[in-house]
Design goal:
nine-stranded mixed beta sheet, elongated, single chain
Length: 697
């Protein structure tokens, strides 16, 4: 016996020997240090058992820890005969789960004389063995059945039930069993099934075949029965006189078409098709298969120099096709009298996940969640319709049986999917079965809802300024619906209403967004006025259903044609009069009060009292010294209203720095804007330019 502690921490291990009749010896114990292995003599452990129970029995070993922390192995040996076999150990779930129906199958047990082609010595004859042990504290009834092939057809033999008392061990008397079924002279392989109701681990089974001299021992590991995907044997060998054999058995009630794909060096492969009717078995001798040199359906043969490889047993539709198949295998060498069982790997699921992650689902719309399995070979398959789905918050999101998610309300939820399927792995326990595992995955779901709007004037007339319009001119305004993640709500299908603080504005009618809008639509808006000296007007868009709204402050510019005031000269050396008897400015605001009535030489463009900055005469008293911005193209000047025109006597706005700090009034502003003016001798008498102006800087 070997006890190995695979963990870093010490482990206390207890063990009890149990006789064939269920008698238990007192508990013994040992402490294993981290990564320590200790050997024990089985004979010493059995001292004290009744004589009639000492020839067979079992061991119960317990420790506290994780599965695999302590590994127990054992061997039976007879050095005189050379007989040896592994002692099977099985993890026993001591939980309180209810009993279930379980069937094990030991496939490919040799009985009688072997095939001469296998090379065994003349006169070799095999007998099957099967030892059953009840590890439970209650009686266990086991129903065995025997299946065999006769004349190419499957046969069956129902054996007497085996009643096992608590902890009892019993051996099936094979000679009597075969004789009772008229199979005393049978030679070939047989399959033993053992059915019981209980928990996995309640029944420990050791099965196999041994020749009459005890020289050749072929262990057969019992396996569970059930639908699986492909099964892989990672290694077969015919090197140095060895041979490999695989026995396939169909436990189902319908035929199975199986492809045995042998893979070897340099990616070579050979495909052997096998048809199994219900309860039929077939043995593949790999050495004989190579010697036959029979091409497969693709014309391939296994070259004679090939020494080993792997094999996959799958359905004809590929490794993900469910099949009902039990396979056993072994590598043996007649010359060295050695034999070992092969371990099988389950083709199955290595990863189960949901995409997308996270799931973003617009409110009142649907989104698709996909459940995907990643298989042993890296391939993926969509199992959305096979999985079970649920939402952790159905007020936010619901999900149907196919993974279709519906955004029921604002907020967050988790979308959960699970599926029972074959797990990928290497399972070499005494009872081999491709286990079903409950795979589960959860991803967050966020239902996208309307959170706000964004308004942008896309036709802004002023370079470098955003959200700007010209009074009376139609502007293009883009409205975007924004979701609760701050992104454009591409699924928005609501109806919006526009309003403005400009009562003279021309606004769009109510509009319902369409799917082609993808959450964004451009409208035509015309603003016309401002309030007092405010430079802006508000534009508001509101969702009619929820009342969610957004207001954008928009700069309003006015467009006018400006005539530049004509001055005779601009040296400001004194208060003199020009030839037209108009006084010129000096250090005071105006030289004389006679300046304003002077109309001689005034340009005809000032005949209208609203010709300049186009505000009403009634605003005169409130606009003096008000800051304004004036633009000509890309040029901008910030100034103030110097005198309170326009009036009939003063039909223009006079803007710019006052004479106290130098510079022409309107002329200086024109110069700043790059407009031709009459301030310089020889200049254009009356400069004109189309300008934009608005209140504020």
């Amino acid at each position: 016996m070997s006890f190995a502690n695979t963990s870093d921490q010490p482990k206390d291990v207890t063990f009890r020997a149990v006789g064939s009749g269920g008698t238990m010896l007192p508990q013994q114990s040992l402490t294993l240090g981290g990564h320590v292995t200790q050997m024990l003599d089985l004979d010493a452990l059995l001292v004290g058992l009744p004589t009639q129970e000492a020839a067979a029995g079992g061991l119960r070993i317990q420790f506290i820890g994780k599965m695999g922390d302590v590994i127990v192995t054992g061997w039976l040996k007879n050095e005189r005969e050379g007989f040896s076999a592994n002692i099977p150990f099985l993890m026993h779930d001591t939980g309180n789960n209810g009993p279930i129906a379980i069937t094990y199958a030991s496939v490919g047990m040799l009985v009688g004389q072997p095939n001469p082609a296998a090379g065994f010595p003349a006169g070799t004859k095999f007998a099957a063995y099967a030892v059953l042990r009840n590890t439970a504290s209650v009686a266990l009834q086991v129903s065995p059945s025997l299946y065999y092939m006769a004349g190419g057809e499957p046969g069956a033999l129902v054996l007497p039930a085996q009643n096992l008392e608590p902890f009892q061990a019993k051996q099936i008397p094979w000679e009597a069993v075969l004789a009772s079924g008229g199979l005393a002279a049978y030679k070939g392989d047989v399959t033993l099934t053992l059915s019981f109701t209980g928990q996995p681990g309640d029944l420990v089974v050791a099965t196999g075949s041994v020749d009459q001299t005890g020289t050749y021992v072929f262990e057969v590991h019992p396996q569970g029965i059930g639908k699986t995907l492909a099964k892989d044997s990672p290694f077969w060998s015919v090197a140095n006189g060895s041979d490999s054999m695989f026995t396939l058995w169909n436990p189902g009630t319908t035929p199975e078409d199986i492809l045995a794909t042998f893979t070897y060096t340099d990616s070579g492969h050979y495909v052997l098709p096998i048809h199994l009717v219900p309860k039929a078995s077939q043995t593949i001798d790999v050495a004989q298969l190579i010697a036959l040199h029979q091409p497969d359906g693709e014309g391939n043969i296994i070259p004679a120099n090939v020494q080993g490889g792997s094999v996959r047993f799958s359905g004809t539709n590929g490794p993900t096709q469910p099949i009902n198949l039990v396979v056993s295998g072994g590598i043996f060498n007649v010359q060295t009298a050695t034999c070992g069982t092969t371990c099988f790997c389950c083709f199955g699921v290595v990863l189960f996940d949901i995409s997308p992650n996270p799931i973003i689902c617009p409110f009142a719309t649907t989104g698709k969640a996909t459940a995907t399995e990643t298989m042993t070979d890296g391939s993926k398959r969509d199992v959305s319709t096979q999985a079970s789905w649920r939402s952790t918050n159905t007020s936010v999101a619901t999900v149907d049986s196919t993974g279709l998610v519906y955004g029921a309300g604002a907020g967050s939820a988790n979308i959960h999917a699970e599926i029972n399927d074959i797990v990928s792995g290497n399972f070499c326990d005494t009872v081999f079965i491709c286990p079903l595992l409950l795979f589960a995955a959860t991803v967050p779901e966020e239902t996208t809802t309307l959170s706000a709007f964004n308004i942008t004037v896309t036709s802004t007339p002023v370079t470098g300024e955003t959200n700007t319009v010209v009074s009376g001119q139609s502007a293009q305004v883009q409205v975007k619906a924004i979701d609760n993640f701050g992104n454009v709500f591409t699924g928005y299908l609501g109806t919006v209403h526009f309003s403005s603080t400009d009562t003279l504005a021309t606004l769009p009618a109510d509009y319902t967004f369409t799917s082609s809008d993808a959450g964004s639509h451009t409208f035509s808006v015309t603003l016309k006025s401002v309030s007092g000296t405010s430079p802006t007007r508000d534009l508001t868009v509101k969702d009619n259903a929820t009342g969610i709204s957004f207001t954008q402050n928009i700069n309003v510019w006015f467009q006018v044609t400006m005539d530049v005031e004509r001055w005779k000269n601009c040296n400001f050396t004194g208060c003199t009069f020009g030839s037209n008897n108009c006084p010129l400015p000096n250090g005071s605001y105006f030289c004389t009060t006679s300046y304003l009535p002077c109309q001689t030489g005034q340009p005809s463009g000032y005949s209208s009292p609203t010709a300049f900055l186009a505000v009403t005469q009634s605003s005169r008293s409130t606009l003096f010294n008000t800051t304004v911005s004036v633009r000509v193209g890309a040029s901008k000047a910030v100034t103030f209203i110097g005198d309170a025109g326009p009036t009939l006597g003063n039909p223009y706005w006079n803007t710019g720095a006052p004479p106290a700090i130098g510079g022409c009034l309107s002329d200086q502003l024109a110069t700043n804007l790059g407009v031709s003016n009459g301030c310089t001798s020889g200049g254009t008498p009356f400069g004109q330019a189309t300008v934009l102006w608005r209140f504020g800087n």
